[in-house]
Design a protein that fits this description.
Length: about 475
């Protein structure tokens, strides 16, 4: 009794999924209705998302999910589709790993210096921030016809409901939002000639969006009305909402999937120049919180190697990697040089050679190098965030697909010298579901939501082993300390 069902559409860079969450006063249960690959496609004009295939996957997922009380959509950040005056999509959304933004930031900084941009938006430099993508797009014929910009989760929400909006947590990744006012940065947009009228009005997680269109009901076999609710539509915002932190716990989090997003939840942004130099970002979270974090290349490094090797079994690979000695060689997993797809094993070997370390030869050695490097980057980010925000922590929460990698969890505990609590694996979907449940009156504030998680979610604890001195020495080897 009192149990309701919510469908979370969660679009990750490596797969999309529709997950049904059943939420009661003292229970949360997730079940996967459908998972589908998210395969970018390279066409002559560059790297594109196959957004129609993703939408097809969403419809299949809703059909498999069956009757639900509401639907919410989250996905990866920064990317968008352009609509013409009729509301029709103008071409496939450009992938954030596409090369079109090379050298664009420097042009933007000639008008608004990087330091001013950071002070105004709190967003770290990444070549793919929406601001730089829009700047790169400006001279194209496609952009000339564009009347609307919809971020990817907002685009799918539009197709499901016919309603257009710009959800705030994901809007913060455009680098056009002021994290203090949590509204558009009219000044930055004005100075850079960005037409904010291209964006649909802002909406907040928990806002009602509308209902599934009749055509969507017909295609999925659902009977209406089915409400659609805005969630933290940035997948990382939803994932951080689902960090199972205990009341009063001083915690850092790391969302480990295609990316590792490592940092803190803060009540206010940190906009100092030191923070900018350390490349920390201030993305917006639920209920007035700030996600103060650093982007680390993440399991992308491993995904790309596995792809290059013809998709060998991941479990076997990780077991072999566990037998390779720790910290033989490490690369800087924060290095933007690893952003583009292709030839990853060679690029990793080359980085080890260039820094005078043993060159990993076997697949197991390369895998181990990646996991050690990720753990080391996690350590750097967790230490730096505490210092820059003057916010000490006692525990690190790991969430996302990487929690299924026990070696990575243990190495992260070892490197940070802190206990690691791993879970939930599908954190973004969980946060998505719980924000919908909350909008429908089933859960209280963020703290209540997390209390529910600590009581109901399976968590695994990792205790740090040995001496963090070895990890400090590895940082020195890389020159990244
Ligand atoms: P995203 O949301 O960015 O698509 P996920 O959070 O789904 O990413 O995480 C995907 C990653 O999780 C994969 O790259 C892989 O390294 C890891 N992973 C998935 N399944 C397993 C598994 N069975 N064992 C170890 N690692 C896994
Ligand atoms: C993770 C993520 C991350 C962004 C990146 C583009 O899926 O949303 O938070 O920085 O994709």
């Amino acid at each position: 009794a009192g149990v309701k069902s919510y469908a979370a559409v969660d679009l990750g860079a490596s797969s999309g999924r529709v997950i049904v969450g059943r939420v009661g006063p003292d229970s949360v249960q997730l079940s996967e209705a459908h998972r589908f690959p998210n395969r970018p496609v390279r066409v002559p004009e560059g790297l594109r998302w196959d957004v129609l295939a993703l939408y097809g996957g969403v419809l299949d997922g809703l059909r498999a999910a069956g009757r639900v009380d509401s639907v919410g959509v989250d996905g990866w950040a920064v990317d968008y589709g352009l609509l013409d005056a009729d509301g029709a999509l103008l071409g496939n959304p450009v992938h954030y790993r596409d090369a079109r933004t090379e050298g664009v930031a420097e042009k933007v900084w000639a008008t608004v210096p990087a330091a001013e941009l950071y002070a105004a938006t709190g967003i770290q430099y990444a070549p793919f921030n929406t601001l730089y993508q829009l700047t790169a797009a400006r001279s194209t014929a496609q952009f000339a016809r564009a009347r609307r910009v919809l971020l990817v989760p907002d685009l799918l929400t539009y197709w499901l409901t016919g309603e257009q909006g710009t959800e705030l947590t994901n809007a913060s990744t455009t680098q056009l939002i002021d994290p203090r006012t949590r509204d558009w940065s009219y000044e930055v947009a004005g100075r850079l000639g960005v037409d904010l009228g291209l964006f649909a009005p802002l909406r907040q997680p928990g806002d009602p969006v509308g209902t599934l269109r009749p055509e969507v009901l017909a295609e999925t076999g659902l009977s209406g009305p089915v409400p659609v609710t805005a969630v933290g539509s940035h997948d990382t915002a939803s994932a951080v909402a689902a960090v199972p932190a205990a009341a009063g716990e001083r915690f850092a989090y790391i969302c480990t999937g295609t990316w590792s997003l490592a940092g803190l939840e803060l009540p206010a942004p940190v906009l100092t120049d030191e923070s900018r130099a350390a490349n920390f970002t201030n993305e917006l979270g639920l209920d007035g919180t700030v996600r103060y974090l650093r982007n680390i290349m993440g399991l992308w490094l491993l995904q790309e190697c596995v792809r290059a090797w013809g998709e060998p079994d991941l479990g076997v690979l990780l077991r072999q990697a566990a037998t390779v000695p720790t910290l033989r060689s490490v690369v800087d997993a924060g290095d933007g040089a690893f952003l583009a797809p292709g030839r990853m094993p060679e690029r990793i070997a080359q980085a080890c050679r260039a820094s005078g370390q043993p060159v990993p030869g076997t697949r197991a050695e390369i895998t181990r190098c990646i996991l050690d490097s990720l753990a080391l980057a996690h350590r750097r980010a967790v230490l730096a965030a505490q210092r820059l925000a003057d916010h000490p922590v006692d525990v690190v929460h790991l969430v996302g697909g990487g929690t299924r990698n026990a070696l990575l969890c243990q190495l992260t505990a070892d490197a940070c010298g802190l206990p690691v609590v791993a879970g939930a694996t599908e954190a973004a979907a969980l946060g998505n579901v719980l924000v919908q449940a909350r909008a429908h009156g089933l859960v209280g504030d963020l703290a209540a939501l997390r209390r529910l998680l600590t009581r109901t979610q399976p968590l695994t604890r990792y205790t740090p082993r040995g001496d963090t001195g070895r990890w400090r020495a590895a940082e020195d080897r890389l020159g990244t300390r």
